[in-house]
Amino acid sequence: MSIGIGGSTAEIELSKLTDMTTDVTPIALGEYQQRITKAQQLMREQNISALYLNAGTNLTYFTGTAWYASERLVGAILPAEGELIYIAPWFEVSTLSGFMVIKSEVASWHEHESPYELVIATLQKMNIGQGTIAVDESTAFFAVDGMINAAKSQNMALNFTSSKAITAGCRMVKSASEIALLQRAKDMTMVVHRAVAKILTVGITTAEVTAFINQAHIKLGAPKGSSFCIVLFGQDTAYPHGVKEPKTLETNDMVLIDTGCLVQGYNSDITRSYVFGQATEKQRAVWLHEKTAQAAGFEAAQIGLPCEAADIGARSYLEAQGYGPGYQVPGLPHRTGHGVGLDIHEWPYLVKGDKTPLAAGMCFSNEPMLCLYGEFGVRLEDHFYMTESGPKWFSEPAHSIDDPFGYEA
């Protein structure tokens, strides 16, 4: 049996866990104000008159106001000059006010009224009767369509465009405060990975493992537990996001566990693959290819190079080992990595075609998974952030297939 795999119980491992969030520092009011200032600067540079932020992570990022997106429009309008105004149903105003970090006026609508007409009326109140309105890229089409039609009904010369240049332009470079929150989330999930590996036993189900992982995240200080969880055994590990009917664990199965949690809204997302039992020569070879490809992607990520360099670095190594080519399997069927922050997947991406220059403060997953359909798969996923001198790991990569967590390193 590999070192650190099996031999314990859920009760024993849960008893060892304590809250890791007692000293966490939330994002300060001043940082939200700085984000708004930067967004307004970008808006003026790009001749954007106003930015609509929809409920969700963009609204949270700029205002600290955490709210869920639904069919009822909740958001905020940020002009290129001046104060933002929130948009919300009248009956939610009191509740919304309690969630605000950036306090500001709320324009409200009753259930029989059009929130889209309210958006246009609010723009008029801001003396914005023409120009370009950047709309949060996560906004549902029906809401964007409603705004466009409301503007047409008022004969307003407004153009609507995606907010990506502004929102991603701000969010893709993380502050020291954000990096600290991301680091803590990843530290917590690594503790969970070490704990869950110890409870594995023949016949355990993926549901039992998932439940343990959720409980472990809660004990470590993530109130909502796991933000997501993928647990796969044996041949199922070849499928990146799982199968309809996952199998129970058998001796010598490959194990793939991909999970994460939230700390002040910031995501962890870490995957470990190892063998429950004795690894075959093929499992060893593929596991080592995966580890080496991950390292190649990491080394290729250098300041000023395009994001795609990391994908090219990892994929080129794998193709040299006979995988692929390209996205073909056996091989790597998806991008090497994604940006991470308030969203688990966010811009920019480590994928061919993403020419965004790598800059200090950018944060990414690194997961060039190898899929061998009908046999097994290996995904080693760790995250790194860019510094002025190059990439730095949030979580240290897996050590070896026989000692994945480095207990005897």
Give a written overview of the molecule.
The chain has 409 residues and is α+β, with helices and mostly antiparallel strands. It has 2 domains: 10-22 and 173-393, Alpha-Beta Complex (Creatine Amidinohydrolase); 46-171, Creatine Amidinohydrolase, Chain A, domain 1 (3-Layer(aba) Sandwich). Helix content is 34%, strand content 21%. The strands form 6 sheets. A 6-stranded mixed β-sheet has the order 4-3-2-1-5-6, with helices on both faces. Strand 12 (337-339) and strand 13 (346-350) form a beta hairpin. It is elongated. The mean pLDDT is 97.
Distance between the termini: 17 Å
- Specify the CATH architecture of the largest domain: Alpha-Beta Complex
CATH topology of the largest domain: Creatine Amidinohydrolase
Estimate the global geometry from the Cα principal axes. elongated
| Number of DSSP E strands | 18
Order of strands in the sheet with most strands: 4-3-2-1-5-6
Percent of residues in β-strands: 15-25%
Helix share of residues? 25-40%
- Characterize the main sheet: 6 strands, mixed
Overall CATH class of the largest domain: Alpha Beta
* Tally of helical segments: 11
| Rg calc | 23 Å
